[in-house]
Structures are given as C-alpha cells and as structure tokens.
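Model it.
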Amino acid sequence: MKNTYYITTPIYYVNDLPHIGHAYTTLSCDILARFKRLDDFDVFFLTGTDEHGQKVETAANNKNVKPHDFVDEVSQNFKNLLNCMNFSTDDFIRTTEKRHIKSCHKIWNALIDNGHIYLGKYAGWYAVRDEAFFLESELIDGKAPSGAPVEWVEEPSYFFDLSKWQDKLLSFYDENKDFISPISRRNEILSFVKGGLKDLSVSRTSFSWGVNVPNDDNHIMYVWLDALTNYLSACNYSEDDNKKKFSKFWPANIHMVGKDIIRFHAVYWPAFLMAAKLPLPKKIFAHGWWTNEGNKISKSLGNVINPFEIVEKYGIDQVRYFLMREVPFGNDGDFSNSQLVNRVNSDLANSYGNLFQRVVSMICKNCDEEVPLKPKNFKIEDLILINSIKDHMDDYRFLIDNQKFDQYLKNIWITISNANKYVDEQAPWSLKKSDFSRMEDVLYILLETVRQVSILLQPFMPDSSKAILDHLKIADDERDFKSLGNMYEGGIKISTPLPLFPRIN
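Modeled.
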C-alpha cells in the first residue's frame, strides 16, 4: 500500500479577486503534491473558497446582489487560477456545499456533546475584515493588529472553552516541535498561548450569511470554525457510512497558510480538534508576504499583483520558477519585474535552456540525430556529473519535506552549472576529430544529466519538463523518481528543438 500525503491550502476568502498571495500559497502546495506523486505517494491536494461571514454579506450587499450569486461568481475566479498556474488539485471545496455544512454541524455537535460549548453573551471588539475578535489589549491605535478597523459588538453568543486548552496546547507544541513552521511563527504562537487564552465566541446573531447553529437558527457559526472544518469535509468526515477516505487521509500532513492566519490554524484549530476528539494535523507552515517593487501591496496604492497578467506576460513556468527561487520560503519577498526577467534570462534561458539546446543540437549535427549508446566505461568526471542527482535524492526529499524550495532549486542549478562546465571542459566539438567515441560518451552523459534534471524539475516547471522529456522520448511511466536509477536508453532518434525559454528583452 502506498504512503498517503494530504496537503491543503487555506480556503480563500471570496470578498475579492485572486492575487499573487493566493497563487504563491497554492503553488507551494502544488509543488509538494507533484513531488510526492513522483515519489510514489497517494496524494490528496485540496484547495477551495471560504464563502460565509459578515464580510461576504457586506460585499454582496454593496453590489446589490444575493450572497449566493456573489460567491458563485468570485469562487469561479479562484477556480480559473488553477488552470492559469497549472495547479494539480484533487478537490476544490466551497463552504456553501452541502457536504461541508453537514461536517460543520457534525463537529459542532461533537463539541456540544463533549461539553465544550456554552451559551453566553459577547461584548468586545470585532474586525469584520479579519473576521476575528480582539481584546482591548491587542488593539494598536484603536485598530486590529492587521490595521483593520474594529467595531464594538454586543450580542448573544455561543462560546468555546478555549481557556481550558492552554496547557494541553503548550504540551502538544512541546511534544511536536515541527508542528508549527518556520521557527519565527512557532515562537509567535508560543508567546500568544503562554500569554493566556480566553473563551472564544463561536456564533453570531447580527447577520445571516453562514452555517446555522444546529437546533438554534438564531445563531450563525463563527466563520473560522466553519472555514477550518473544510479540511475535514473534503475527507468525508460527515459521511458516517463512508469513512474510507477520512481514515485514509486524515490527519493532514500539512496545512499551508499565510502568516496572517497562523493563529486560527495553530491555536483555534488544534483546540477544536482536541475537543472533538479528532487527530491533529501533522504540520502548519506559515509563509511570508510579498511586496511589489519594495512597496507594500494594497488596493489603495493600485499595486496589487494580478497572477493572470504576469503569467500571460512571462509564461507559467517562468512565474512558477521565480516565485519559488527568489526568496527562502517562509520569509517575506519582493516581487520585481526586473528581477523576474533576470532570473528567466540567466537561470532558464542561458543556463538550463541553453544546456538542453546545445546538447541536443550537437547530437543531431554530429550523431545523425541519434542519441549515442550508453558508454561501456565511465571516467571519474562522468560519474561525478551523472550521479549528482540520483545519489542525493534523500537530500532533495529533506528539502521538500521542510519546504526549502529555493535550496532545492539552487542544488539543481549547481548540477546544471556543472554540466555546462563539463561541456566546455570536454569540448565535444574537438573530440569529434580526435576521439569520436569519446565525443559520443560525453554527449550521452550530458543528455542523461538533462533527463535527470528535467525529472526533478517537474514539480516546479511541469510544462517545460514535459516538453524536454517528450523531446527525449521518455515514456510517461519512466518519469517518476524511481526512474532516476535507470539510465537513459541510447539509440533513440531525436530532432533539433525550438528554444524552450526565449530570452525576455
């Protein structure tokens, strides 16, 4: 039986259009999903949209449309992003779906039955934009820590006994050091929980767009209890007669989120799950934010980065590569058009693309368009190059499992750089006259290196990798990581390729 891997994005709030942050989060999950599939895992990759709450209701009212019509339109924009960025999702969940509402009712009833929800009255500060409650002590200049305006709210409310879970959460964090990553976010959460937890209001009565509380239609479930439950809904949590999917994939291997919502995922969510007597996810990773040319991104500044536009301008794989290569994942990063162009031209056009182009062109020119046969004997410099990938797969697995995407790419580009140096040092154009057999060996070694590199780059640049592997006539069932142990079959006819990564001027 295959190992399983369940990965989730946050479900994206549908009060606005997708931006670069949404693309970035989902891209990181797509890379993990593709890598694990190539490594023989049974993968479940989930994304979707969070469609309830006061903010959505207000946005719909402002457009003079019904909330359901509003969320249908905006949710489709997020589905369109999947195709735009070539994401390989397995499911797209919407919180307006019946399967999700059933799951929300089930976890609510579990919390009720286990004695962790009680009826009271809420009086305090609420940020509609963040869909979050805040203590007076948490406000900064009269606003939420995010800068969102807050309003005083007084209304009947059901409460979750979050205060009782402080010690249990701290013990869990201590026993599971890797539960929250990176370390800066872990320290942030530890500080927050050690500062003391208050019982959490988990229902609202002042608006109607949401999941009703079971047996009390006057109350709507708190949007974050509703939203977080999506991770269970997609696994058939509510289907008592069909638990195969739930038992197969839950708990999730990783929830990927932005750092602005780490508290909901690393504090509230594990407490809800503990109280419902459900297993906790294995990891929460909170990545950083992007700026635009050094400036904070905001609608008011008019500098929101539209992923559809940049993909159309630069290409899917070019954008995917830049976003993962430019900054260590987990840190904040700056989106720069000039830096993207430099990356594409330097790394993709001049290095990787040029290696592929020149090697295949030399084979076509000097070997009658036929890949040389596997050498009978290898020189030490040959072995160093062709073993630089397959002998270090455990290192690549470690980097992926720890979300060190930029280092993964750096390591591959070391091999690409070494391959380009190998071309210059071996000078196959000279060997053609002095040692034709050695020229064939050199070209074989180079093409084998291109094959390995292209297999390993599939999670990051699927279209480009496919184009190269197709050109080399690598069968579809010979593109997983097990295939790295099998060397390229020579004697295959190939043709001169078109430039894969045209330079951007």
